[in-house]
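Hi there,

I know you've been waiting on this one. I reran it after we fixed the sequence typo, so this is the corrected version. Both the input and the resulting structure follow.
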Amino acid sequence: MSILQLLLVGGGLMTLMVVGYTVMSGPSAAKESQRRLQAVRFRHSQSTDTKVESQLKKAIASRKPKRHAVAGSSSRSEALAMRLDRTGKDWSLTQYMYASLGLALAIALVIYLRSGALLLSMGIGLVIGGGLPHMVVNYFIKKRTANFNAKFPDAIELLVRGLRSGLPVTETLAVVAQEVPGPVGIEFKGIVERIKIGKTMEESLQETADRLGIPEFNFFCITLAIQRETGGNLAETLSNLAEVLRKRSQMKLKIRAMSSESKASAYIVGALPFIVFGMIWWINPGYIGGFFEDDRLIVAGMGGMVWMSIGAFIMAKMVSFEI
């Protein structure tokens, strides 16, 4: 048995061990006990805060994005179409597939002409062809989400001013669609158009929340749902929500500033070996060509990539914070 075969067998055994541990471990006993205690407290407590918290959890549970669950499990094409729609670009599934396939073929051809290794060229081409378009889509989704979150508190405050002046909620939504630029105006315009064709406001908001997948907009939808169930001053509630969203945005900026140095170090440490390897291979292919021919060097290179990936993953988790 060759070294590559042993490596494949070892990787398969490790994968089976990880899958078996995940299946056999089951849910955490501590989390299950905490969940039961909370359920009992929500059921029997007479506190107003507890009742409001219970209604909030029920609203969140009832407003989970069902379309995303279906798209993520039984229809990969629908999930990809939703991701492309979140970018705000007029990209179709066909264009995405053709771009990925063309990029994979181009990268594989260039590497094959330089190295002569067919399997390696196909593997690298498939990885880059499948990964790079995915990263580009992620970049545009994050950019549009950031633009949405930057203008969303202003839109909520505009809603508050409209409600305090005596306008109904649907008309204030139309005002936001006209006055606020960027993704916020586009999404609120879609909500108003769906209301005009006969859908309820809650259905229109939920459809937009499922498409966007933005926590801040989910907070807005849940706030409106709770206000409809419990009553109260909607303008005051939305004003408090706008203040919370602004503080949340400020906290994100502080965390980004504090972790920027660690992220820059991780990017440099992770990218430098690949940059040096590519430069040496391009200048003098014979000096480093053994990594494409010798089994021992191939195994050493794959091992180095695995350990570097583990280190990059650990550093990414260390500087990643959820708010």
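Quick highlight: Residues 153 and 243 are 8 Å apart (CA to CA).

Best,
R. S.
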